[in-house]
Amino acid sequence: MHIATNVSCWNGSMRFGRRPSFCRVLLLDSLKVHKMNTVRAHLEDAMTDVEFVPAGATMLAQPMDVAVMAGFKRECRELYAQHHCIHDHSATPQERRSLIASIVVQAWEQISDVTIRRGFMKAGLVPIGPRTSDDRFTISKPPAPQLAATSNK
């Protein structure tokens, strides 16, 4: 993954080195900027479906916040503290943005797929039911139709 930062903006932006080969779901609040056509187009290019949390329903996604974001934020704080134990504080805003972008990537890589799936299940955002050994949702095959016995009387 290649990380690029926009010098005219406080946050960094991610650019994928290759096009993703699978679909994803991104859960966002209903902030106006999230619904812009340019944002929507970039997400579609990245094979990402967006689900918006309706106003007043943020609490429904709270288990996801607890399951994933608590660990992610903890890892970000730890990486930030470790960096500053060894290095001086960044001199320029561009250096600070670059540092934060790299910390975000490192912290996100520490979150396991299992943790993310469990967060979505706990939030009720994916089907809950039978799972395979690798924790994927599965539907059992319906039983074969029974042929009724007919008598020739």
Task: Put the structure in a nutshell.
With 153 residues, the protein is an alpha+beta fold. The chain contains four helices and four strands, in the order βββαβααα.
Head-to-tail CA distance between termini: 74 Å
Count of alpha and pi helical runs: 4
Strand order, biggest sheet? 1-2
Q: Could you give the order of the helices and strands?
A: EEEHEHHH
The global form is elongated
The biggest sheet, with number of strands, parallel, antiparallel or mixed sense and barrel status, is:
2 strands, antiparallel
Pfam family, one: DDE_1
GO molecular function, one term: nucleic acid binding
Domain DDE-1: 10-120
Region (Disordered): 132-153
Structure notes:
This protein is α+β, with helices and mostly antiparallel strands and 153 residues long. It has one domain. It is built from four helices and four strands, in the order E-E-E-H-E-H-H-H. It has helices spanning 37-45, 62-86, 93-109, 113-122; strands spanning 2-5, 12-15, 24-28, 48-52. It has a two-stranded antiparallel sheet. A two-stranded parallel sheet has the order 3-4. The radius of gyration is 22 Å and the shape is elongated. The N and C termini lie far apart (74 Å).
